[in-house]
Structures are given as C-alpha cells and as structure tokens.
Specification:
alpha/beta; 5 helices
C-alpha cells in the first residue's frame, strides 16, 4: 500500500482526510514520522503555503508527502480572512471561537454574505510538485448553527443546502467540502 505523509498536526484534518481516502493509501501524520517542527506558513497564497509545508517534509525526511492550506474567502471582505483564516483574530494558535466572533462582527453591516472555502493541496512525489484545488461556494450566516465540524463550519452554509457544515455532520460534509473536492482530485491522480 502506498504511504504518504500528510503535513499537518490538525487532528480534525487528519481524520477527515483518512475518512475520504479510506484504505487506498496509508496516511502518516507528522507525529508518525516524529516531526514536531512548527513548519512556517509565510507565503502569500494558499498554494504557496501548501508547497512550503510539503517541501519541508520532503527536504527533511525524504518522504512523499502532501500538505494543504485552506482559506475562507468572503466577498464583502475582499477575500478575507483568506490565508489568515486560522489566525484571523490574532494571538497564538488557532482560536476558532475568536475567529468566528471577529468574522461575524465584520459582517454586521454587510449585505453581501457570499463566501467560499478553498483548499489547495500540494503533493510532492519523487521530488515533483502537483497541485489540486477544491472550492465550495456558500454564504456566511449571521449566527452559529450546529455543533459538528471545526473552524468556521457553524457559520458557513454551502450553496444548495439549508444546513451549515456544522449541522450536516462529517459524513455529509466530507462528500461536498472544499477539502473533499481537492482530496478527490488527489485520489484520482494517485490511482492513475
């Protein structure tokens, strides 16, 4: 079975990716390869950040790997929070509550609630980079709904649905999410 390192320490992402890929590929986490580095995300695009993370693993561990970067892009906020989605409210770490609070506060006087989640995956295989993108369009709702998911899931409602990502549960979300769409493209490439 093919082994790939997923360059993340995010348990939610790891669980989601393993569920989407099933038993086609063995996914190793950074912990599995004993990598405890805080890999910098200093690029100014999702693609750039995904490439930085994947390249770090490939250069330091010599293993085929992939990394992703995801951003919530809100039309009325000129694409913000974008690459800063995980640390939108500032401070240390990834404070989802503070990020959501800031987003909802900034959306108060905006009529346009259109938004999209975008994930870019960078796969490095035998030293070559391959990119896969997944997008899901939707809108920001004014109050949190649902207890599942993570990040901005309670305030993001995908187009064509009457539930937020946080209301629909992981099985449903994993079929339609931005990450699922990018991972699907990754799977198709791997299975070629």
């Amino acid at each position: 079975m093919k082994k790939l390192v997923f360059a993340t320490n995010n348990a939610h992402k790891l669980e989601e990716i393993r569920a989407i890929l099933g038993d086609k590929v063995e996914i190793l986490s950074l912990n599995d390869i004993d990598c405890h580095a805080d890999i910098p995300e200093t690029a100014d695009t999702l693609q750039g950040n995904a490439a930085l993370k994947a390249q770090y693993i490939y250069d330091n561990y010599g293993l085929d790997c992939f990394a992703d970067d995801t951003g919530l892009e809100v039309e009325a906020l000129n694409g913000a929070p974008g690459i800063y989605s995980a640390r939108y409210a500032g401070g240390e770490g990834h404070d989802s509550e503070a990020n959501m609070k800031k987003l909802l506060s900034e959306m108060q006087d905006k009529d346009n609630s259109k938004a999209r989640f975008r994930t870019v995956i960078c796969l490095i295989e035998d030293g070559k980079e391959h990119f896969f993108e997944g997008i899901v369009n939707g809108s920001i709702i004014r109050e949190r709904k649902g207890g599942a998911g993570f990040g901005y899931d309670p305030v993001f409602m995908p187009d064509g649905y009457s539930e937020t990502f946080a209301e629909m549960g992981n099985d449903e979300k994993n079929k339609i999410s931005h990450r699922a769409r990018a991972v699907q493209k990754l799977c198709e490439y791997i299975n070629k």
